[in-house]
Amino acid sequence: MTRDDANEGPRPSRGPPLQSKTGQFRSLRGAFPAPEFSAALAEHGLAPLKPTRIRTLQVNLGKLCNQACRHCHVDAGPTRTEIMSRQTMEQCLAALAGTVIPTVELTGGAPELNPHFRWFVQQCRALGRHVIDRCNLTVLELSGQQRGEGVYETSIAALKRLNALGYGDGRSGLRLDLVTNPAGAYLPPDQGSLELDWKRELQRSHGIVFDSLFCMTNMPIGRFLQWLEASGNLQGYVERLLGAFNPVAARAVMCRSLLSVGWDGRLYDCDFNQMLNMGVGESAPQHLEAFDLAALEAREIVCGPHCFGCTAGGGSSCGGALARGPEER
Ligand code: SF4
Ligand code: SF4
Predict the structure, then answer these.
(1) Is 190 part of any domain?
(2) Shortest CA distance to 4 belongs to which of 132, 147, 178?
(3) 272 lies in a domain?
(4) Which atom of ligand 1 is nearest to the CA of 138?
(5) Which residues form ligand 1's pocket by a CB distance below 6 Å?
C-alpha cells in the first residue's frame, strides 16, 4: 500500500480493460525515441544484461486483491481469478529446496488472499528461507473494518497491530518497511529525506514506528500507462525517465539478483516483465517444472523500453532506490 494509493481509495471496479502486451509495447515504442534500453546499457558496458546471483525468488500468489489502485501495474483487483495453486506452490518449494536462494518474496494482488498463503509461508520458513510479504495493509483488517473507514484509517489500524506484534521496533528482527510511489507523472523524491518525514509524522500522529521507507518509480505499464496516455502525460513522463537515466542504478537493477515466478509457475526476469507477459529468454527454463538455477543464472535478461523506469534518478526496485541520482553523485 502506498500513501498515494490510500488517497486514491479502493476502487470496486477495474475500469476499462488494459491494452494487450503488444498494444502496451506499441505505445511505449512510439513514446520512447531511440536509443533503446539495450543501447543505453551498452554505452556503459552493461549489455547484454545478465544476472549476478539469484538471491530472491519472488512469487506472485495471484492477482486477486481487496483493492484496485489506480497505479497498479499488476491490474489486480477483487474480480481477478488467477490464483497460484497448491501444486504450483509445491513446485516452488521443490525448486527452492535445491538451491540456497536465501529470500522468498511474496507478492500479488494481495498474497494473503491465496487460501494456501499461511501454509506456503510455513514451508518456506521450514526450508530456512527469509520471507518477505508485500502486504497492502488493508487486507489485514478485512474482518474488523468498520463501515465507512477509508484505506488510510484501515492502514493505520493495521500498522498499529503490526507494531504491537513487534514489527518495525528495530529489535525483534521483524522488519516493517513501507513503500510509496508518486501520485502523478513525476519521479519519486529523495528517499532518505522522505523517510525522515514519514517516521516523524507517523510517530507524532499515531505512535507508529517502522524500519525503512522505499520510494518506487511508477513503471509505464499496465494501469499507469493507461492513465499516462489518457491524461496526455506519456511523452513528458518518458522524457523525464530518459533524462534521469543513471548508470549506477542500471548496474544494480533488481532483475540481476531476483527471479520472478508467475501465479501459474512461469518464470520471468521481474514482476514488470511478468505483467507484460515477457518470459525469461529462450535459453533458460520457462517454467518451475524445469527449474535449473545454473541455466537461469547464465541467461540474458529480456529488456524493453519500460526498463528506463528502473534506472531513472536513484533507480527503483522492490527495495526502493538503488543508487543516488546523477545530480547527487
Ligand atoms: S496489488 Fe497493490 S497496488 Fe495492486 S490493487 Fe492491490 S493493493 Fe493496489
Ligand atoms: S523492468 Fe525488469 S527487466 Fe527491466 S531493468 Fe527493471 S527489473 Fe530489469
Answers:
(1) yes
(2) 178
(3) yes
(4) 7
(5) 1, 5, 65, 67-69, 72, 74, 76-77, 108-110, 136
Average pLDDT, rounded, for the chain:
89
Ligand 1 atom with the shortest distance to the CA of 63 = 1
Name the residue with the closest Cα to ligand 2, atom 5.
Answer: 307
Residue of the CA atom closest to atom 3 of ligand 2: 303
Total of domains in the chain: 1
Give the mean pLDDT of 145-163.
88
DSSP letters spanning 142-165: TTTPPTT--HHHHHHHHHHHHHHT
Q: Which domain holds residue 227?
A: 3-9+24-310
Structural domain includes residue 17: no
Output the domain CATH number for residue 270: 3.20.20
In a domain? residue 150:
yes
Residue 5 clears pLDDT 90, i.e. is over it: no
Q: CB 244: neighbour CB atoms within 10 A?
A: 19
DSSP structure class, residue 94:
H
